[in-house]
Design a protein that fits this description.
Layout: E1 4-8, E2 18-21, H1 26-37, H2 42-52, E3 63-64, E4 73-76, H3 85-88, H4 91-95, E5 107-111, E6 114-119, H5 126-142
Antiparallel strand pairs: 1-6, 2-4, 2-5, 3-4, 5-6
Amino acid sequence: MRSTTWRAADAGISQGLAIIGPSMSAEKAERAETMLGKLGGGMGGFLMDRLFGDLGPEAARLEAVDLPGAHGLLMATPEAQAALVPVATHPALANSAGLLPGGTLPVIRRSDRGLEISLRAALSRPEEVLAPADLGETLRQALPDS
């Protein structure tokens, strides 16, 4: 499957990793957290990479973050729990499924590599190509360090 990633390298954090993925029940979030904690290669690592992209060595330290009003599952390392709070609750994220191809929900990461928005879908029309960049810029502006 094709994927597209928009990145703002200057909107990163100095330590840790925070990600927002598709919403799921508390039980499924707990299972995802357990799977991430057991990463070390193998099928679990492969599946999590397919779902969230390459999370690097920080993946095993991710924990679910309970955030009322979040538009997706927020997971973060302990030092990065606040890194995506303004993004997770932003109205643009709630409305993004209607703007992205086939209602695809993005995976959003914030780390030392910057703020990244990834889609696991082929983009073919001009408005589909522009949608992740527009969403990224909107969410980037919501971050206090940007």
